[in-house]
């Protein structure tokens, strides 16, 4: 798996110390992070993402999920801006990784099968011995019969493939099932094409720069959930709704999101990037006037 | 009213137009907003008995704003009354915030229901949940097992 890192390229960095870049796989434009060291690096940058995969030993639940990690488009953009991410190269043409793995697995299986058949034969002999000596005690003719039975067993015993116990190794590194893009990650659409998209990115960058952690706020009808620290340690304080300064918002929607925020003890934040690259925030709170 | 006294009786004068608040003098074209402002004015003065309630015209937004104090010695607030079906931009909210006072947005529904929302500049941390806190421990697990 170490040979994979030779395919990563650090995007034109001027610094001497180059922290290893995070390998991002694209699955139909969804940025995924597969490897453990990459996930750790992403979290160290203060980006949370969302785990998508199921854990091999506990598949039928949604409480604890496994790799890959899906990055928000804003998180991917931030990694690209900091030149900390690189697209993993296309491995379809060099399939040596897959073939070698398969061969290794088949060899291991064969070895395990041979071991298991020897052990199974011994088990059968022991069982036979116990059965014969238990049934009759002391008669010499029994020894003769036993010897003949054991001989027959040796000659005719076969261990069927279907009875073999197969061990699956779940601690393998280098998971990657999606075709990776060969080119570097392209820009996320022309700037200014969709004003909302850019507003979100500006707000994300500003809040991350202030030390907040952000995740997506689908459950609360906002754009981001803003945590004062790592989400594993804190509850979110704010629901961020990103609008541009001139965007007209229906008053009923403002009331709805403000009321929701007060019900879940979070402040609703209206965020708009201003003209001078600063972002202005307005906090909405329940007035307490019935 | 059925004309029993012979002559046509004149309808009583509209008391809203004659109210000393005199919002109509501010010359705002959006009559729905002026009406909303009037309802909020009445709520603050007669129902909640706030002090020093006055009207101000905002020329950039072309709306009537109210300024009031909740009681003597309390800080002045700016109130922005708006009909609930209208839309608002973040820019206009910032304009009102730029006046320097804390802002109350009041949405006036068609049935005259009033909803007040506080708006502040910056990031205001919400109040933390109130204790005492009880450690749930295994209670949730036990509940789930009983349900099965």
UniProtKB/TrEMBL annotation, chain A:
Q: Could you describe the subunit structure of this protein?
A: tRNA splicing endonuclease is a heterotetramer composed of TSEN2, TSEN15, TSEN34/LENG5 and TSEN54. tRNA splicing endonuclease complex also contains proteins of the pre-mRNA 3'-end processing machinery such as CLP1, CPSF1, CPSF4 and CSTF2.
Chief localization class? nucleus
> Which cellular compartments is it found in?
Nucleus, Nucleolus
Residue ranges constituting the tRNA intron endonuclease catalytic domain according to the UniProt record = 199-273
Record EC number: 4.6.1.16
Q: What class of enzyme is it?
A: lyase
Q: Output one GO BP term.
A: tRNA-type intron splice site recognition and cleavage
Q: Which InterPro entries match?
A: tRNA_endonuc-like_dom_sf (IPR011856), tRNA_intron_Endo_cat-like_sf (IPR036167), tRNA_intron_Endonuc_cat-like (IPR006677), tRNA_splic (IPR006676), TSEN34 (IPR016690), TSEN34_N (IPR059049)
Which Gene Ontology MF annotations are present?
A: nucleic acid binding; tRNA-intron lyase activity
Q: What does this protein do?
A: Constitutes one of the two catalytic subunit of the tRNA-splicing endonuclease complex, a complex responsible for identification and cleavage of the splice sites in pre-tRNA. It cleaves pre-tRNA at the 5'- and 3'-splice sites to release the intron. The products are an intron and two tRNA half-molecules bearing 2',3'-cyclic phosphate and 5'-OH termini. There are no conserved sequences at the splice sites, but the intron is invariably located at the same site in the gene, placing the splice sites an invariant distance from the constant structural features of the tRNA body.
What is the name of this protein?
Answer: tRNA-splicing endonuclease subunit Sen34
Keyword Transmembrane carried by entry = no
UniProtKB/TrEMBL annotation, chain B:
- Name of this protein: tRNA-splicing endonuclease subunit Sen15 isoform X2
List the residue ranges of the region (Disordered): 126-148
Q: Which SUPFAM superfamilies match?
A: tRNA-intron endonuclease catalytic domain-like
What GO terms describe the biological role, i.e. biological process, of this protein? tRNA splicing, via endonucleolytic cleavage and ligation
- Which spans does this entry mark as compositional bias, Basic residues? 139-148
Any GO MF annotation of the entry: endonuclease activity
Could you name the domain of life of the organism this protein comes from? Eukaryota
The chain positions of domain tRNA-splicing endonuclease subunit Sen15 read 39-128
InterPro entries xref list: tRNA-endonuc_su_Sen15 (IPR018593), tRNA_endonuc-like_dom_sf (IPR011856), tRNA_intron_Endo_cat-like_sf (IPR036167)
Q: Its family? A: Belongs to the SEN15 family.
Q: Name one GO cellular component term.
A: nucleus
Which UniProt keyword terms apply here?
Endonuclease, Hydrolase, Nuclease, tRNA processing
Has keyword Repeat? no
